[in-house]
Write a structure and sequence with these properties.
Strand content: under 5%
Distance between the termini: 76 Å
Helix content: 55-70%
Order of helices and strands: HHHHHHHH
Number of strands: 0
Number of domains: 1
Oligomer: single chain
Structural class: mainly alpha
Low-confidence stretches: 149-158
Length: about 170
């Protein structure tokens, strides 16, 4: 395949086979990463009241973003330079924990707005928007839990936790 590419009008006559092979390997690696990104953006169900489900959702969402954006998001969210030799998985887990623990949405939105590349890429913008929707829903559930609204009306066939019919 490299020999056919070398004869192709797409490349200069002086390109070496080593350069072509290196380019092919880089493209294959990029396509594999893109496949992982696309696969991780598929809809997933989460139990919003489960901390572990939310943490895993945020981790997967950060993994589906362009990997080059993660250090920039970390820098804008915490104001510190990313740690050296931190893998993408560890970086995504760290960002997921920060996103999960942070309460004020304004702080999170401000951190994301400092990384304009998110807004320029439609897939990244969609993932970020979905993350903010999940975070807003999570906070609404926490407020609801704190407010303890009156119990809902039930049908005659429903029972309470002890097996007795509710009235």
């Amino acid at each position: 395949m490299a020999f056919r590419l070398k004869r192709s009008p797409l490349f200069q006559a002086g390109i070496s086979l080593h350069q072509l092979q290196s380019m092919i390997l880089s493209l294959q690696r990029a396509f594999r990463l893109e496949e992982v990104r696309v696969a991780s953006t598929k809809p997933q169900k989460i139990f919003i009241r489960s901390d572990s489900d939310r943490m895993e959702y945020y981790r997967r969402a950060f993994l589906s973003l362009n990997p080059m954006l993660l250090p920039k998001i970390l820098t804008s969210a915490l104001g510190i330079a990313p740690m050296v030799n931190l893998s993408i998985d560890c970086l995504a887990a760290l960002l997921a924990e920060i996103f999960h623990e942070a309460y004020p949405m304004n702080d999170l939105e401000a951190a994301f707005k400092k990384v304009p590349e998110i807004l320029l890429s439609k897939p990244d913008r969609i993932v970020a928007t979905e993350m903010f929707h999940v975070k807003a829903f999570e906070q609404a559930c926490q407020i609801d839990k704190l407010g303890e609204y009156p119990p809902r009306r039930t049908s005659r066939n429903e029972t309470d936790g002890d097996g007795d019919h509710r009235r």
